[in-house]
Here is the input.
Amino acid sequence: MDGRQRITTVQKYIKNEFALSKSLENINDVEVAGKYFKELPEDFQDEILTRNFLIYSMRNMTDAEVSQMFIYLNSNSKMEKMELLRVMASREVMELIVTMENQPIFKSLKLSKNQYNHFMNEEVIIHTLAVAMNGAYDLGT
Here is the structure.
């Protein structure tokens, strides 16, 4: 359902596959910005390595049930609007978005890795679909 990207990101960080953002603030007066896992103080490494993840395993759920459960489980955390849209969209809509994403016009988008991580490519496609279907669309915030 959700969380796979978070868990794999933690795994990759522990394997020193990337450094933390250079814009991170100090934690307890310790500089962590731009550091790989192996460069963190030992107590920080231990804190990460001993962190527990709560995992829910659910089977045989409809798309609607999955969406409801996702929203319920994430109700205490701030979700980006695209995360909510992705959850509420049907499987068919998401398949259409993935298909459109592979079209040359959308592949030519100049988006940063961060924008892709926040589903900006999918947001552009949704805006495009809205314009195509309605003829007009409010592109406000």
Summary: The chain has two domains: 4-49, 79-134. The chain is about 50% helix and 0% strand. Helices lie at 4-14, 42-49, 63-73, 81-88, 91-101, 104-107, 113-117, 120-134. The mean pLDDT is 81.
